[in-house]
């Protein structure tokens, strides 16, 4: 069974129990960088992504991650709009699967751009999905991805925010839920880390909420051209009347700049907190190593004392054994002597003998 088929089967099996599970559902059309951003959040290459004229993701995939207080299943879902109606209908089913498995989710919708201009098909797809699964403001993150760093107008973010307020139906677009990501070198790990931090700082401000399906996702290939043309005309009208929105654009740009400054300040505060924790950890580690060294020295001294005591004990034990042997030898000799004395004492006395001298002697010996 292929990886895509296994993930699809896992989605179907888990649809039954979803009340306590949360997701981060990343939506957007093919080529906007959904898989790439999902991999950045995960910190590994979990989903296939590459530059291609056709869609790369064809089935719903997900991986678990902890973001803030929420364990989330990050979904990598096919883009909605394709060149064929059959492919669009299949993509609708894949989007339905994600919402069926994790109705309690944060939704991240990714917009692509061409030269900084929001793509019409991305707006069409957003409005179609939002009509089917009304997005909640506390759970919706909007991302404009891959923006060129050079030749970017100073009020680009404010202009885009106000434009999206005009184009997106039924949602609140503001400086908190709109995130602008620069185009980066995929091989530059520091840039990928910066993008990850920027995404996380945005996502953690939102909470999963339940998304209920109100209607089918309505995208018909024959009507797509007309829908894109309508969005294009709205963008042209906005550009033509841009002077009317200058005050609003300036205000929005100031809010976005303030948000970015606050995020940078929070990041720096967080980095300082991490640095303090690392310093405290280093100090605790140093003290621990000193205590370990002191304990090791005391242990070595104790072992030396124990070895010396053992040698003394062995010597004393040997002396004691020798003394005990001498005592036993003396006791044995004493026992033998006592036995001899008793044996002598127990002998019967010899009979007396009388020896007389000759007649001329006056002495006699009795024995």
Automatic annotation (TrEMBL):
UniProt lists the family membership as follows:
Belongs to the TRAFAC class TrmE-Era-EngA-EngB-Septin-like GTPase superfamily. AIG1/Toc34/Toc159-like paraseptin GTPase family. IAN subfamily.
UniProt keyword annotations, A-Z: Coiled coil, Nucleotide-binding
Kindly list the organism's lineage: Eukaryota, Metazoa, Spiralia, Gnathifera, Rotifera
Q: Can you provide one Gene Ontology molecular function annotated for this UniProt record?
A: GTP binding
The chain positions of domain AIG1-type G read 24-222
Q: Which residues form a coiled coil?
A: 210-347
SUPFAM superfamilies noted in UniProt: P-loop containing nucleoside triphosphate hydrolases (SSF52540)
Domain of life the protein comes from: Eukaryota
Name of protein: AIG1-type G domain-containing protein
> Pfam families from the xrefs?
AIG1
């Amino acid at each position: 069974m292929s990886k895509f088929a296994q993930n699809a089967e896992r989605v179907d099996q888990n649809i039954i129990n979803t009340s306590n599970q949360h997701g981060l559902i990343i939506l957007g059309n093919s080529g906007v960088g959904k898989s790439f951003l999902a991999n950045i959040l995960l910190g590994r290459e979990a989903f296939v992504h590459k530059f291609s004229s056709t869609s790369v993701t064809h089935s719903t995939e997900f991986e678990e991650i902890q973001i803030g207080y929420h364990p989330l299943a990050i979904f990598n879902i096919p883009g909605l709009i394709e060149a064929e109606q059959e492919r669009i209908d299949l993509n609708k089913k894949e989007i339905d699967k994600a919402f069926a498995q994790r109705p309690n989710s944060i939704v991240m919708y990714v917009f692509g751009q061409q030269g900084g201009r929001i793509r019409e098909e991305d707006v069409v797809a957003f409005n179609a999905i939002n009509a089917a699964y009304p997005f909640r403001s506390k759970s919706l993150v909007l991302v404009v991805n891959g923006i060129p760093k050079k030749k970017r107008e100073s009020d680009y973010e404010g202009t885009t925010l106000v434009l999206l307020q005009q184009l997106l139906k039924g949602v609140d677009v503001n400086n908190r839920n709109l995130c602008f990501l620069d185009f980066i070198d995929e091989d530059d790990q520091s840039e990928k880390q910066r993008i990850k931090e920027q995404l996380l700082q945005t996502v953690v401000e939102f909470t999963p909420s339940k998304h209920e399906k109100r209607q089918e996702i309505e995208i018909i290939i024959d009507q797509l051209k007309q829908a894109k043309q309508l969005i294009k005309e709205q963008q042209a009208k906005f550009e033509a009347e841009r002077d009317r929105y200058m005050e609003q654009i300036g205000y929005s740009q100031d809010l976005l700049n303030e948000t970015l400054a606050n995020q940078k300040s929070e990041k720096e505060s967080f980095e300082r907190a991490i640095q303090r924790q690392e310093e405290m950890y280093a100090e605790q580690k140093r003290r621990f190593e000193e205590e370990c060294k002191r304990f090791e020295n005391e242990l070595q001294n104790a072992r030396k004392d124990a070895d010396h005591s053992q040698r003394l004990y062995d010597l004393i034990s040997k002396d004691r054994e020798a003394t005990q042997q001498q005592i036993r030898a003396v006791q044995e000799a004493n026992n033998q002597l006592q036995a001899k004395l008793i044996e002598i004492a127990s002998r019967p006395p010899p009979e007396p003998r009388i020896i007389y001298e000759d007649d001329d002697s006056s002495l006699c010996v009795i024995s």
